[in-house]
Specification:
Helices cover 42% and strands 19% of the residues. It is of the alpha/beta class and 283 residues long.
Length: 283
């Protein structure tokens, strides 16, 4: 089910999609249906972020004639939680809801960090459906295994003190500085802080807890969709080698390291991210 929440003459449509467990996913569809050489692109953000993560990337894709679909993960941004707990499989099912709503055919899906977990969970749960709906996968600063977040980090993510620190702009930016590469743009770091600070503490904790024991690699071998895996050379959140492991597990994938970039690739190198997505869309 969907409920229009408003639209603009410029071709922006807001939708609220209801999942099978009652969550409401805030979704934005940018641009008219794809023109010649264009495609539908669905962008899945990571944990403690929201649709703002993709602003610069979406702008570039729209200029290339693509239709861009953005959504907030459950519990993030303007999306609500449902009856099911936050989990990797559940987030993959939420992505399936978005793809079904836009009736995706030959679409490209990009997932950053935890959004990449959701993309891989969707594709491995239904490889045939993924082959029908998708033309390509862009997996950014993400992993298919080895994401066993420590109990201490989970507690920090859910703590009121950490939330307070994030709410202080200068301190919050300092705390998140390690997530970016060598020379982050101050505006990009501030957007990252704002997204992290506005994500409810319990949602942050539940997300980081949910990847314990995750190993999506066995299922990736059955996903026939062409893919590009990007990793920042200076990523201190998700080791680039974990991205290499994804590319090795997928049958039609290539891996690329981005010099000087850290973990927040859509904010740090939007030109390259948009270029990779556009290349997949026009294969």
């Amino acid at each position: 089910m969907s409920r229009p929440a408003g639209s603009s003459p410029a071709g922006t449509a807001e939708r609220t999609l209801r999942t099978d467990d009652g969550a409401r996913l805030a979704t934005t569809i940018l641009g008219p249906p794809p023109g010649p050489g264009g495609s539908t692109v669905v962008l899945s953000h990571g944990w403690a972020a929201d649709r703002r993560l993709w602003g610069a990337v979406a702008k570039r894709l729209l200029a290339g004639g693509h239709t861009v679909v953005l959504y907030d993960q459950r519990g993030h941004g303007a999306s609500t939680l449902g009856r099911d707990p936050i989990g990797i499989t559940r987030l993959g099912a939420d992505l399936a809801t978005v793809l079904a709503h836009v009736d995706a055919r030959d679409a490209v899906v990009a997932g950053h960090s935890g959004g990449g977990f959701a993309v891989m969970a969707y594709a491995t749960a239904d490889p045939h459906g993924a082959a029908t709906r998708l033309r390509g996968l862009a997996l950014l600063a993400t992993a298919a295994h080895d994401q066993d977040t420590s109990a201490g980090e989970v507690r920090m993510m859910g703590s009121g003190l950490f939330s307070w620190a994030l709410s202080r702009p200068r301190l919050g930016r300092r705390l998140l500085r390690h997530t970016m590469g060598r020379h982050p743009a101050p505006a990009a770091l501030e957007v990252h802080r704002q997204m992290f600070a506005t994500t409810p503490a319990q949602v942050r904790a539940d997300c980081f807890r949910s990847s314990r024991g995750m190993d999506l690699r066995p299922g990736l071998a059955s996903v026939p969709v062409p893919a590009v895996v990007l990793a920042g050379e200076a990523d201190r959140v998700t080791a680039p080698e974990l991205g290499e492991a994804i590319a090795e597990a997928l049958p039609h994938a290539r891996f690329e390291r981005l010099l000087c970039a850290g973990h927040m690739l859509p904010l740090e190198v939007p030109d390259r991210v948009a270029q990779v997505i556009a290349e997949l869309a026009t294969r």
